[in-house]
Known about the structure:
The chain is an alpha+beta fold. It is built from 6 helices and 5 strands; from the N terminus they run βαββαααβαβα. It has helices at 12-27, 55-73, 77-94, 101-108, 127-133, 148-163; strands spanning 3-9, 31-41, 47-50, 116-125, 140-144. A 5-stranded antiparallel beta sheet has the order 3-2-4-1-5, sandwiched between helices. A hairpin with a 5-residue loop joins β2 (31-41) and β3 (47-50). The longest helix has 19 residues, at 55-73. It is elongated. The two termini are 34 Å apart.
Amino acid sequence: xxxxxxxxxxxxxxxxxxxxxxxxxxxxxxxxxxxxxxxxxxxxxxxxxxxxxxxxxxxxxxxxxxxxxxxxxxxxxxxxxxxxxxxxxxxxxxxxxxxxxxxxxxxxxxxxxxxxxxxxxxxxxxxxxxxxxxxxxxxxxxxxxxxxxxxxxxxxxxxxxxxx
Length: 164
């Protein structure tokens, strides 16, 4: 079962720094992420999502490949690539993997302009080592699906940043 953690940072740069740290921890097999998205609120009040995987681009690339292959079979590869890319991009745009976009945008509406929320879907983690690694970054827990003990440990680790 996966756990959702949402932490608010004063800037998108700080949230990106933490996300990169989590990716590093994943490379060390201390953490397995399902998704990691940064939501920011612009000065105009619009919520922007910075996702790791662009499903539209991935769909277009996959569709182009299959369209080219089918186009070669019917002796019109250019038409095949165009049709494949269009259908793949449409399918990618309609696909939502990981954390629900509407949920992130709804929570992002609560942000102050210029601040950022890091949404992390955690499949597995070595909690003590991950908490130690994110200790110096600060942030405020907005929402989690962790049990109370682990949520308190996360809050304490984030508070440690202010005391250093």
